[in-house]
Amino acid sequence: VALNYNTKVEYDANIYKGNFVVVSDAFEDYPVGSTVVLTQVSAFQFSLTSPAVQNPLPFTLTVDPNTLLISAPRQKIGDWFLWEPSYTNPSIAVSGTTSFVTPCSKLLTVFLDYRVDQGGFGPYKLVLRKP
User: Is 104 helix (H, G, I), strand (E, B) or coil?
Assistant: First the structure.
């Protein structure tokens, strides 16, 4: 006999600020094991910056407290990629509806759709965990 219990996991804004460790980054801008700082913008928003761009700009992610899903419109993240200066005005947006926070395990999983003036790269998965 299996028992299923409905539980409500609540979003805790205090978790999603401060230092996070990079678990994985398919785009390879954030080195695995490195630290990323999340800055609280509002009760349901936090921001971070990319280490791989010239003149990094913070980009803001929004969490829906009812579903724990993450969203973000397209935002410029810097002037160009350090690994390829001819790729100008890099920007990101959250792709699809598979980006989310997991408060119990202090995880953040987000699919970022990268674009530059010269074209797009598509969505890449980034996973961060609070130590």
Answer: helix
Contacts of 38 (CB under 8 A, 6+ apart): 16, 17, 18, 19, 20, 46, 47, 48, 108, 128
Tens of pLDDT, residue by residue over 51-110, are 999 999 999 999 999 999 999 999 999 999 999 999 999 999 999 889 999 999 999 999
**Maximum distance among all Cα pairs of the chain, rounded to whole angstroms:** 61
Residue holding tokens 């790729």? 87
Entry pTM: 0.91
Record the tokens describing residue 41, joined without a space.
């913008």
DSSP secondary structure, 80-95, as one string? EETTEEEEES-EEEE-
Neighbours of 57 (CB within 10 A): 15
Find where tokens 């978790």 sit. 15
Dist. CA 102–CA 97, nearest whole Å: 14
